[in-house]
């Protein structure tokens, strides 16, 4: 037996905020929504993996460390799109070899977006 990939990650959002969640994940992030007719969860494709968001009466569990990290192509374009949507980005956490920032989705789930920094030189 060998684990070879993550199939999906599940996050929560307050019931009634479906429109905000769809706008964030589909329109702002550009993830295609996957439709399952018998489910109240919202599902989005991130490559071969899925991000599932489940409505709850309580919002997401808050933690300063818990987050979903997504590796992207063209991080500056995504950064610009999120700033135009007036979202607060956290950009003060350097990670050697990567460009990155954090943002919270409309439900308060923390997301990290990162891209390898191809211009950074490494000391041997």
Automatic annotation (TrEMBL):
Domain VOC stretches: 5-116
Superkingdom of origin: Bacteria
InterPro entries named in the record: Glyas_Bleomycin-R_OHBP_Dase, Glyas_Fos-R_dOase_dom, VOC_core
PROSITE patterns listed in its UniProt record: VOC
Gene3D superfamilies: 2,3-Dihydroxybiphenyl 1,2-Dioxygenase, domain 1
PANTHER family per record: FAMILY PROTEIN, PUTATIVE (AFU_ORTHOLOGUE AFUA_3G15060)-RELATED (PTHR39175)
Protein's UniProt name: VOC family protein
Annotated source species: Giesbergeria sinuosa
């Amino acid at each position: 037996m060998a684990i070879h990939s993550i199939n999906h990650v599940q996050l929560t959002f307050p019931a009634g905020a479906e429109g905000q969640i769809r706008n964030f994940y589909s329109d702002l992030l550009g993830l295609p929504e996957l439709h399952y007719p018998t489910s109240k969860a919202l599902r989005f494709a991130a490559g071969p993996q899925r991000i599932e968001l489940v409505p709850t009466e309580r919002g997401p569990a808050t933690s300063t460390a818990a987050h979903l990290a997504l590796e992207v192509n063209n991080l500056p374009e995504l950064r610009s799109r999120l700033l135009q949507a007036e979202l607060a980005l956290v950009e003060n956490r350097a990670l050697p070899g990567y460009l990155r920032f954090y943002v919270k989705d409309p439900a308060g789930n923390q997301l990290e977006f990162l891209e390898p920094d191809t211009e950074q030189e490494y000391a041997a």
